[in-house]
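User: For my dataset I need records formatted as: sequence, then structure tokens, nothing else. Please produce one.
Assistant:
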Amino acid sequence: MIKQKKSLKGKKLKIAIAGLTSCEGCSFAVLDLGLEFVQAIDHFDLNDFHLIMDEKGDRKYDVTFVDGSPLTKENIKTIKSYEDDRHIW
């Protein structure tokens, strides 16, 4: 599902990588990119990535990547907390 409400021209995208019920393999694969990952984060604002950050950003993200499936009530609560008109999923 793609929802985009306003232009982001000239701004860095605010990114979140949400971890739900999964083995977290996809999230670790992102980290395995190594230098490519480090170079890529110069092009966006990584505000939430559960494997490398203790605290979340401002919870207003332009793009949210979801690792796993919402299988529990807590997972559903988590995924709903990322919902916003400005997200691109």
